[in-house]
Amino acid sequence: MITSLTGAAAGSDGTSETLTSPTDRALLGIIRAAADVVVVGAATVRAEGYVLPRRARLAVVTVSGDLDGHRLGDTMEGVLLICPEARAAEVQDRSGLPGAQVVAVAGGDDLEPAAICDALADRGLPRIVCEGGPTLAARFAAAGVIDEYCVSVAPALEAAARPFLPIHARVATDLAGMLVDEAAFSYLRLRPRR
């Protein structure tokens, strides 16, 4: 995840692209390379114009299948659409991604993070990177399914309508690593205290 000093998850253009740096993108590539799957919410796919990770699979959490604005390409081989069981057919049709595989998760429209993780692990994808957006990442944090937080802090003062991680209760963490580069970006690794 990336944030400004003021807690914004997006820069002036409404995406994280105006907050990031070459070093941040390089670290993101390293994190993705160690993952089996990158999990992201459909709202983030729409807002960011998401592209496919080079090495990991992409899993999009969606209730509706609306992915307008994506830059995922046409074939979608290897893309997973995680959705409520009752909406699987609707999500497949509406996504416009004929090569994507629907992963139907039991329960209602409010998909539980643990159920998402279990569904991915059942498909041989246990190493999960949740890239957000803010709502999905906060749900993963609240559910206690995050082993490590990797947070880049951009040296920017952006207006923040809401925090980059809108949690409602404190998550106690321990510092696992921290770097600061010449451009004044900070890179934090935090582990939840268990």
From TrEMBL:
Q: Which Gene3D superfamilies match?
A: Dihydrofolate Reductase, subunit A
InterPro entries, from UniProt? DHFR-like_dom_sf, RibDG_C, Riboflavin_Biosynth_HTPR
Pathway as given in its UniProt record: Cofactor biosynthesis; riboflavin biosynthesis
Q: Name one GO molecular function term.
A: 5-amino-6-(5-phosphoribosylamino)uracil reductase activity
What stretches pass through the bilayer? none
Superkingdom in the source lineage:
Bacteria
UniProt xrefs under Pfam families: RibD_C
Task: Give UniProt keywords alphabetically.
Answer: NADP, Oxidoreductase
Q: Which GO terms describe its biological process?
A: riboflavin biosynthetic process
Q: Which SUPFAM superfamilies match?
A: Dihydrofolate reductase-like
Q: Which residues form the Bacterial bifunctional deaminase-reductase C-terminal domain?
A: 1-157
Identification of the protein by name: Bacterial bifunctional deaminase-reductase C-terminal domain-containing protein
Protein species of origin: Microbacterium lushaniae
